[in-house]
Amino acid sequence: MARVALLSNPKSTGNQSMLPRVRAFCDLHKDIFHYEVEHADQIGMALRTIAKVKPEVLVINGGDGTVQATLTEMFDSMPFGDVPPPVAVLPNGKTNLIAQDLGADGDAVDALARVLEIARSGIEPHIVTRELIALNGGSRGGKPVLGMFLGGAVLADTMLYCRDKIYPLGLPNGVAHLIAFFAGLISIILGKRASFLPPRPADMKISVLSQGHLQGRFAVLMVTTLERVLLKNKIAPKGQGGMLQLLIIERRPLAILRAFSDALRGRLGRHEVRGIHLQRSDEIRIEGEHSNLILDGELFEAKTDRPIVLTSTAPVPFLRLAA
């Protein structure tokens, strides 16, 4: 029996330089079972193998997309049965939203050492629960996909623009994200197509269970079950309508600047602001004409005749590294 099982994706951005150190650390600690995958279709076999060693903690070493694929496989095929081990996430990839929410910042090997320390001393005080987003429908259809952060509207198009246009330049992540933010803001202000800017968003209809709907072209559509995102602000208070936190910002420059200013001060959502909508729900329906949506790094498309429906899952155990 291994105390810690580590599932690594060697192709994630952070692992290109860091994986040799992770391997060396695992070689020194025999109570870590390390399994590497290079493709998403190998994750199912990896988890079935990991389940045989009965780990106390499952650690994911990859970007948000690797976490999303692993969670989907865990709760689709249930390799651990009805009681999966708590999941820890190492800081890796470009955004690390899930890792940050669980208190994993800084060096991935240091975070792994912290996980091992917790596993040896007792994991119970560090277990927290998070619901997941279950995404159904859209252009792909098929089985639900599970994740923790979904972006849409200009936010999704800007994320794709950053991934396809800015990241290849080799700039530091913070600089790349800042450039993408201002490019997205300029595209909203100009309201015109330009080859060097993110595209104009498609028209969308967003329906919230028992709370009506909004329709138009939005700057930000964000749905998450993470505790803190957008500069560590809580999107909406708990216990008010459901577990899916929804943030919509209309294509109004003043609303966008107000949201960014409030987020910097940790005051997002404390006051009603025209053009900013914050809600909670257990079901959200998204329709549109070829509207891009990104769930933990994976691209989906909502259509009028094939809407995407988001629901929340039952609570899932995770391991929080911060004290």
What labels describe this entry?
Rossmann fold; alpha+beta; 2 domains; 323 residues; six-stranded antiparallel beta sheet; single chain; Tumour Suppressor Smad4; globular; 28% strand
Q: Low-confidence spans: pLDDT under 50, at least 5 residues?
A: none
Q: What is the makeup of the main sheet?
A: 6 strands, antiparallel
Any guess at the CATH architecture of the largest domain? Sandwich
Look up the CATH topology of the largest domain: Tumour Suppressor Smad4
Q: Kindly report the spatial arrangement of strands forming the biggest sheet.
A: 7-6-17-14-9-10
Order of helices and strands: EHEHEHEHHEEEEHHEEEEHEEEEEE
Number of DSSP helices? 8
| Assembly category | single chain
The total tally of domains equals 2
The rough form would be described as globular
Instruction: Quote the beta fraction.
Output: 25-35%
Round the mean pLDDT to the nearest integer and report it: 84
Describe this structure in a few short sentences.
The protein is an alpha+beta fold.
Q: Would you write up a description of this structure?
A:
- The chain is an alpha+beta fold.
- It folds into two domains: 4-122, Rossmann fold (3-Layer(aba) Sandwich); 133-314, Tumour Suppressor Smad4 (Sandwich), CATH 2.60.200.
- The chain has helices spanning 15-28, 43-52, 64-77, 97-101, 108-121, 153-166, 173-190, 253-264, and strands spanning 4-8, 32-36, 57-61, 87-89, 127-130, 133-137, 145-147, 149-152, 204-208, 212-216, 218-224, 244-250, 276-281, 283-288, 291-295, 298-302, 308-312, 316-319.
- A six-stranded antiparallel sheet has the order 7-6-17-14-9-10.
- The chain is globular, with a radius of gyration of 20 Å.
- The relative contact order is 0.16.
